[in-house]
Amino acid sequence: MYKYWIKYQKGEEVRFISHLDLLRALERTSRRAGIPIAYSQGYNPHPKLSFATPLSVGIVSYGDYLEIELTENLEIDEIIKKMNDNLPLGIKFLDGKKLTKKVPTLGALVEATEYKVVVKSSGLKEKIEEILKNESIYIERRSKKGIKMVDILPLILKLEYKDDVLSMLLTTSSTANVKPKEVLSLLNINNPNVDKIETYCSKGDKLVTPLQWLDLV
Fold first, then answer.
1. Choosing a second label site near 79 at 20 to 30 A (CA), which of 15, 98, 147, 161?
2. Which residues pair with 7 in a beta bridge?
3. pLDDT tens digits, residue range 153-198?
4. Three-state SS for 204?
5. Per the structure, how many domains does the chain have?
6. Euclidean distance between CA atoms 3 and 102, whole angstroms
7. pLDDT tens sequence across 95-123
8. Where's the DUF2344 domain (predicted)?
9. Lowest mean pLDDT among 19-23, 69-73, 112-116, 143-147
10. 84 with 125, same domain?
11. Rounded Cα distance, 108 and 156, in Å
12. How far, in Å, CA of 165 to CA of 135, rounded?
């Protein structure tokens, strides 16, 4: 079997497609394109295709990643071309690499995600400054186990507002995370269009993209 990491785009045309629908679209496209995806064994086999992070409905992404496992050894350029020739409008493969050694899963490596929101607000810059002066910011999260208070301030790695663009770099690891809507709620920004710009892993004390990470290991 042969594994690949692929950077892809989920554009404006499919902003409101669900995570499951995206998975189904990729599976159907791979069949049309003749890309030999490997399947799990058992009564209900499923394609060996996984995402770095699930993408929420309503978010456009220009820097998301997936891992795909094939039964044949194809060149990455061939995979990208064949898929892009058949993918629905708004979904596009941008770049990729074949894995040449055993590495952790994408989901285990992801540490942070960059988001941008276009919004006009005369007092937003001052509001951000006030928020970042706090020693902690606790929010309430509900789960099957009950209500939990979480300090999200350490998880906000960057929060800036310039030229009507709000930029956020947020922790999105498997052990700790903060969602864009949780930060936007602090800023009293309701129902904006959120764009996901890039996904990052950590290498030493630096944040790098997953494909850059592969070059460094």
1. 15
2. 65, 95
3. 999 999 999 999 999 999 998 889 999 999 999 999 988 899 999 9
4. coil
5. 2
6. 10
7. 999 999 999 999 999 999 999 999 988 88
8. 3-180
9. 143-147
10. no
11. 19
12. 25
